[in-house]
Amino acid sequence: MVKEGKVFKPTKLGIVTTAFMVDNFDDIVNIEFTAQMEEKLDQIEEGKQNWVKIIEQFYKELQDDIKTAEEQLSGVRIKIPDEETDEKCEFCGRNMVIKSGKFGKFLACPGYPECKNTKPITYKTEAKCPKCGGTILQKFSKNGNKYYGCENAPKCDFMTWYEPVAQTCDLCGSSLLKKSGFKGKFTLICSNETCPNHNGVAKSENK
Questions:
Q1: pTM
Q2: What is the pLDDT of residues 153-179, one digit of tens each?
Q3: CATH of domain 2-72
Q4: How far apart are CA 101 and CA 97, in angstroms?
Q5: Domain residue ranges of the chain, discontinuous segments joined by +
Q6: Cα–Cα distances in angstroms (integers) from residue 17 to residues 25, 59, 65, in the given order
Q7: What tens digit of pLDDT does each residue of 117-129 get?
Q8: How many whole angstroms separate alpha carbon 4 and alpha carbon 16?
Q9: Containing H/E element for 119?
Q10: Element (H, E) at 12
């Protein structure tokens, strides 16, 4: 699920997963089963049912469902619909889509194999680059590790592993970074390497 404003909306992965569960586990994923199980749990609490027998019965039915699903879906690959974005492919102009890979999600051109353009998903932060003033983006490496870099890369080579915060340095005005420490503590350091506060300006509990 994702939250848009005050409303929760299902993702395409959620829709595909729900359809899979309903198609293959319809005796469990339904309102009647939920109501009956709630009644049995109430009876267990009241001492009218043996919880071991209830659980044994449930697991037997679940194991049968899983075995049947494995046999019917042997060799079947379930495709998750691509999520289209507003970002244009710089090579062919198509709207890029979000795909999932070994190390997480990434952007890819839907024109594959004619266009093989891919790139990591980035998220804007409220911090500004200390070198050129551009927006600092949250990025992910090819191995799925989170890092932060300037939106003007590769022209600007600013990069850090530390999370930027909206607060700015009192000495030079550059954005501060959250340098993680021991037992959830962190130190705020200036993103400007030439600033005296680059070694640390404050300490706080990471909540």
A1: 0.51
A2: 889 999 999 999 888 999 999 999 998
A3: 1.10.460.10
A4: 13
A5: 2-72, 83-120, 123-205
A6: 11, 21, 16
A7: 998 888 889 899 9
A8: 20
A9: strand 118-120
A10: helix 12-24
